[in-house]
Structures are given as structure tokens and as C-alpha cells.
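--- STAGE predict ---
source: upstream dedup step, 1 unique chain passed
mode: sequence only
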Amino acid sequence: MLKKEYRLKNKKAFNATYRVKHSIHKNGITLFAGHEKKETEIITRAGFVVSKKTHKRAVKRNRLKRLMRESYRLLLKSGETGNSQKYLSLIFIGGENALNKRFDEIQNTIKFLITRI
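--- STAGE serialize ---
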């Protein structure tokens, strides 16, 4: 489980990240990156969103969020974060194409997005 200190929870922080409009997309997952850090000690926070329009069942939406969160946690643990740590916040948005993907496919997609951002 991703620790609370790494999670993006505040609605204002989500809106500020969306306003920057710095995004990349692959295999049904979109990554929005917020403002760049001025200080290196600040922790990069990540948010995970799957819209109700993606699937009407909450079980499917929550499964996709759990898979994205776990793959990001493992990438943080292994240190394969690429350029993502120079941003204040990241938002991963799961789409319809990512619903039926396996964990390794989602992990490869998130790793690609993090390195390309």
C-alpha cells in the first residue's frame, strides 16, 4: 500500500495539477504532471483516478486504481522513478482500455509514462 505521505488527496491539489496541462497517454492510462519542484526535499505526491464513465461497477474501477497504485509503489521502492520526482504532483487516470489489463501490462505502462514525462 502506498503511504499517505505519497498520496494526493486534496481537491485543490488535483485542480492545480490539471491546470498545468502537462500530460502523456499510453494504453488507456493518462499521466498529468504538476508544477516542477523548486526544492528537492519536497515529496512528489501521486493521485489515482478512474471515472464512473469508465465503468459503472465500483469493483472494476477500484481494481484498476489498486493496480496502478501498487505498480507506482513498486517503482518508487526500486528507485525507477525517472523524471517523475522533479514534479510536485502526479495524477494517473485510468481509462476504459486499461480495465482488463493484467498487472504486468499496467506496470510496464506506468513505468513508460514515468520515464517519458
